[in-house]
Design a protein that fits this description.
mainly alpha
Length: 109
C-alpha cells in the first residue's frame, strides 16, 4: 500500500469515528487575511523557520493576540476586560506596523 493510500485510510477511519466533528471553528470560514497580507517571499521564510521549530516576531504577536482573545472570553470583571482589550489593540497595532514596514521595504527594492 502506498503512503498516500495509507494516510487516506487513517483519515477516513478518524472521520468515521467522528474525530473531526467538534473541531474549533467548524463551519466557519478560515481568516487568512494575515497570511495573504504577508509578502510571498516572507511567507516562504516563515515556513522554513516554522519547520525548524522557530517563529517570527509577527507569528509571536499573532499567537499573543489569539491567546488574549481567548482569555477575554473567560474574563468577566470589567476592569480586567478593559485591560485585556487594550493589550489586544496594542499588539494588533504592533503587528500592523510590522506589516506596513515590510510593505515599504518591498516597494523600495
Amino acid at each position: 500500500m502506498s503512503l498516500e493510500k495509507a494516510v487516506e485510510a487513517i483519515i477516513k477511519e478518524a472521520q468515521e469515528r467522528g474525530e473531526f466533528d467538534n473541531l474549533k471553528g467548524k463551519g466557519k470560514p478560515i481568516d487568512l487575511s494575515a497570511y495573504f497580507e504577508t509578502p510571498e517571499d516572507v511567507r516562504m521564510a516563515y515556513s522554513m523557520l516554522k519547520e525548524a521549530g522557530m517563529v517570527s516576531a509577527e507569528v509571536d504577536l499573532l499567537n499573543d493576540i489569539a491567546a488574549l482573545k481567548e482569555r477575554l472570553t473567560t474574563t468577566y470583571e470589567e476592569k480586567d476586560r478593559s485591560r485585556i482589550q487594550k493589550m489586544i489593540r496594542e499588539k494588533q497595532l504592533q503587528f500592523n506596523i510590522m506589516l506596513e514596514r515590510q510593505k515599504r521595504q518591498r516597494s523600495e527594492k
